[in-house]
Amino acid sequence: MHELPVVGGTSSSACESGSGGSCGSGGLVALETLSLEPRRRLPRWLKRPMPSTEMSFTSGVIEDLRLETVCESAKCPNRTECWSQRTATFMILGNVCTRPCGFCSVPRGKTEAVEADEPQRVAEAALRLGLKHVVITCVTRDDLPDGGAEHFYQCVLAVREKTGAAVEVLTSDFHGNREAISRVIAARPDVFNHNTETVPRLYHRVRRNAEYQRTLDLLAQVKQEAPGMVTKSGLMLGLGETLEEVLEVAADLRAVGVDMLTIGQYLQPTPNNLPVDRYVPPEEFDEIGEQCRKLGYSFVASGPFVRSSYHAGEMADLLARSATA
After folding, report:
1. Which residues partner with 264 through β-bridges?
2. What are phi and psi of 175, to 5 degrees?
3. Model confidence, pTM
């Protein structure tokens, strides 16, 4: 089978895995930022299948209903696989973000007006695709008083009413607005996901205008207001973090009640984004995943191509089955 590298000119979307510079213990080593050369070859484990003709159905639904997906906007390396299986992660509140995150390829600039009929269009797309688990994410909208929380609420309700599907939200931090966070919780999503992305030391470079403590506070609030709601967060590796830092973040997230953790490889989506510091080998992801599971998570997914919404439905099903076993 032909395989497609996940990068166009340099590297691709939010996470990656590689060889250079590992330590004898198998932990992560903080390295100086590498200067990537054009068309740098990826390690063998970072190859993806060629596009399938089955992608056209998903693409047609998205285009017909004028929807945005994080799959396209963030140049996700899993888009070929997911769209071929008629699944996608819907991105609401436009395609322009108010945050200058160093890892993300979503456009920044003048934001667009919120479209009142978007909840119904997302619900219709979920119905046409036959989705049983719908993931809804967003651009960060610091320009809106509630950060788009009411729109999130309406989207969750519309999808549930039209399809009966489980709904997972992957939200911004709403700039710490507790009322806004409460409004999304009130929609009773089946999974409340908010990504930590990286370790605190790298926030100034990776998640500019975000705060590590704000992320922990958001996730803690969800558990305080809805103790039975499943919470989830994700990390990228390959940005210069150390193993010790990763495990400290994992412990912090578990301390605020996070149930599910995803860990994947950072991939540079465009030459204007942060370069990859290191490609983390699959066996190292396995080791890190095992160490995180010892912290008491209900579910940990750790691997080069793991993303927050990648196989999200399967993850949620496994968590539910384990809870009733």
Report:
1. 236
2. 55, 30
3. 0.82
Residue 305 CB partners (closer than 8 Å, separation 6+)? 15, 46, 48, 77, 78, 264, 265
Query: Tens digit of pLDDT for each residue in 188-237?
Result: 999 999 999 999 999 999 998 899 999 999 999 999 999 999 999 999 99
Q: Tokens 């996070």 correspond to what residue?
A: 258
Cα angle 118, 119, 122 (rounded to 5 degrees) comes to 85
Q: Tell me if 302 sits within 8 A of 263, measured CB to CB.
A: yes
Amino acid symbol at 136: I
* CA–CA separation, 27 and 21 (whole Å): 10
Instruction: From 63, 221, 92, select the one nearest 155 (Cα to Cα).
Output: 92
Q: How far apart are CA 230 and CA 228, in angstroms?
A: 6
Contact assessment for residue 278 and residue 18, using Cβ atoms and an 8 Å cutoff: yes
* N residues, the chain: 325
Place of tokens 């489980």: 166
Q: How far is Cα 325 from Cα 313, in angstroms, rounded to an integer? A: 18
Instruction: Assess contact for 133 and 168: CB atoms under 8 A.
Output: yes
CA distance 52 to 71: 15
Q: What are phi and psi of 4, to 5 degrees?
A: -110, 120
Find residue 197's DSSP bridge partners: 235
What number of other Cβ atoms are within 10 A of residue 295's Cβ? Answer: 16
DSSP helix/strand/coil, 280: coil
Range list of H helices, 192-311 = 203-206, 212-225, 243-255, 282-293
Structure tokens at 278: 């290191």
Q: Render pLDDT for 24-46 as a digit per residue (tens, 0 to 9).
A: 333 343 433 334 444 456 777 66
Distance CA 223, CA 182 (A): 11
Q: Is 2 exposed, middle or buried (0-12, 13-18, 19+ CB in 10 A)?
A: exposed
- Closest Cα partner for 158 from 64, 67, 254, 43? 67
Neighbouring C-alpha atoms within 13 Å toward the C-beta of 221: 21
Phi, psi (5° rounding) for residue 218? -60, -50
- Integer Rg of the chain from CA: 19
